[in-house]
Each structure stands twice: as C-alpha cells, then as structure tokens.
C-alpha cells in the first residue's frame, strides 16, 4: 500500500509517516520546508524516516508540482501541508495562507480526479468554528472563523467536499483540536512555555489564562487520521479532540508539577484571532471511525517536557 503524506517534515506529518511505515506502508513524503519555523526542526522531525527503505522524500512545493502523475500509484493521500498558525494570518501574510492552504489543496484535489485513490484525508482545524459559546463544537454546527487562517481551512474543507460531490474524490476532512506532544511546532503554546521554563525565562501568557482548549496528543491524532483513512465513507467531516477541556492555567500547573519548576508568567493582552474556548463533540468520530483518544493531558505533557529537555534543545 502506497501513501502520500504532504507536510511530512512538520509536527503531525512526521509522526504520521512513522506510523504508516510501522504499518508497512510505502510512503512518499512531500515538504517545501516552509519558513513558518526554522528548517532544522523540520529536518530533525524527518530523521527517523529519511533512510527507511520504504520512504521517499520530495523536497518540493505542492504549488509548483505536476501532481497528477504523482498520484498514479497512490492509495491514500494524507494532506497535512499548510501554513498553520492563527495569529500571523492577518495582513500581508494572508497571501501565503491562501496559496498554501487553499490553492495547494485545490490543486491536489484536482489531481485526485479520476485517480484510484481509496481516501483523501484533509487536515482541517477546530479554528473553522470560531469563537462560540455553543459547546461542545459539533460538526453540523455553525462555522464562523475568527482568523484568516480559519477561513482558509474552512475554504479547503469546502473544496474537499466539492471534489467528492462533483468528481467522487473520496475526501474526508478532520478538524484537529490543539495538537501537542513531542515535535510540537515552536510557535505553539506548550512548546513556547516549556522552552522558557527549561531556560528559566519569562513566559508570555496571553489573555487571563482561563481560556480553555481541548488538547489532543499527537499519537491520538495519528490514530484518528488512520481510522478516517480506512473508514469506508467519504464526503464527511469529523472532529478529532482529546476528550477533555482544560484551562491554560490548569495546564500550566500540570507542567509545573511535572517539571518541578515554577513558571514566571508575563500577562499579555488577548491576541486577535484567538478563541476563548474549544471543546470537540467526539460522538461522530467515536461511533463511525472507532476513534478513542488514549493519552491523558498529564501523561502527554510529561512526554512533551521530556522531548523539550532532552531532544529539542
Ligand atoms: N498542530 C495543531 O494543533 C493543528 C491543529 C489544527 C489543524 N492543524 C493542521 O494540521 C496540519 C499539520 O500541522 P502541523 O502543526 O504539523 O504544522 P507544521 O507547520 O509542523 O507542518 C506543515 C508542513 O507543511 C509544509 N508545507 C506548507 N506548505 C507547503 C507546500 N505548499 N508544499 C509543500 N509543503 C508545504 C511545511 O513546510 C510544514 O513542514 C496543517 O494542515 C494544520 O493546519 C494542526
């Protein structure tokens, strides 16, 4: 079985590639080493798979590739490549978001027309829901993103649905809720927080710390992605969350307990594009995909802390 993983050098893509290889898939990975964070992190992410006999790596930008021949013998597309991050998606930067998130997805879906794909899994985001009190967030509920990033993720979800409806491309969209764990992107909160704690530096805390997130450990996300790939349906959307709602202050207290260190927090204003609460309704993913997150927050944070202190720096 041959799979294509886009964004393979990223946080989630690299974990997924490792899991696919462990399942004996042949994996073609594409990544452009976008400069959303330093390339050495991405190269390190790839280090476990790069020399695997069933892995081949294309250092390419999806936007500049002839994608149709690439999909010739591919059974599963896992489309994770994107310009992520909510706060930096305003202003001039939006052009990069629309190109990498919308246009690249449309090109890949176009290439999927008439192919023999078994599944096209698209990595969407909880940011499509926006700032809502209607919790838990339900797949069929309202979507009103509050960041340009969220708008691009929702637009690409609509494209995935369109290409399924119009051309039978077997696409499924998965809305990931704040993913964390080893290799987490350096612009994400736990990474920033743990790095600062490790170095004895001040930690910026945006808003009052009472904002809540449904944090999802990376191996649970990978498990959900695979379950969606092997699910017989298409044209659907599923939430993938961690199954609990925790405030940032509670999570900080857990990391303090794990590390045995006290955080030096610097209060900062709420940032444009941030939402106050996220919580996934998981019933659809549980009942149709058999998804069941396994890693609790304390265990997951301990694994990320170990990575920050022994591998990342
Ligand atoms: N990490 C999270 O909490 C989270 C939450 C919701 C959704 N997502 C989605 O999951 C996916 C993976 O996120 P991540 O956190 O691993 O991000 P990441 O930045 O670590 O990985 C994305 C990778 O895609 C590559 N890429 C971007 N545009 C490309 C292009 N045009 N051609 C080739 N490669 C390209 C980048 O170089 C990067 O390595 C993204 O689609 C993101 O929107 C992530």
Task: Summarize the structure in short.
By secondary structure, this protein is an alpha/beta fold. The protein contains 10 helices and 13 strands.
What is the global morphology?
Answer: globular
Euclidean distance between termini CA atoms: 36 Å
The chain-level structural class is: alpha/beta
**What ligands can be seen in this structure?**
nicotinamide-adenine-dinucleotide
State Rg. 19 Å
- Total helices: the number is 10
Structure report:
Helix content is 39%, strand content 17%. The protein is of the alpha/beta class and 313 residues long. The protein has one domain (2-179, 218-243, 279-294): Rossmann fold (3-Layer(aba) Sandwich). A 7-stranded parallel β-sheet has the order 3-2-1-4-5-6-11, with helices on both faces. The chain has a two-stranded parallel ribbon with strand order 7-10. It has a two-stranded parallel sheet with strand order 8-13. Strand 1, helix 1 (11-22) and strand 2 form a beta-alpha-beta unit. The protein is globular, with a radius of gyration of 19 Å. Bound molecules: nicotinamide-adenine-dinucleotide (NAD). Nicotinamide-adenine-dinucleotide binds at residues 6-7, 9-13, 30-34, 36, 42, 61-63, 80-84, 100, 104, 123, 125, 153, 176, 178-179, 185.
Question: Can you lay out the helices and strands and say which pair or pack?
Answer:
Elements lengths: L1 E5 L4 H12 L3 E6 L7 H7 L9 E5 L7 H4 L5 E4 L14 H19 L6 E7 L22 H20 L3 E6 L2 E2 L8 H11 L3 E4 L5 E2 L2 E2 H13 L5 E5 L5 E2 H12 L5 E4 L14 H7 L7 H16 L1
Parallel strand pairs: 1-2, 1-4, 2-3, 4-5, 5-6, 6-11, 7-10, 8-13
Antiparallel strand pairs: 9-12
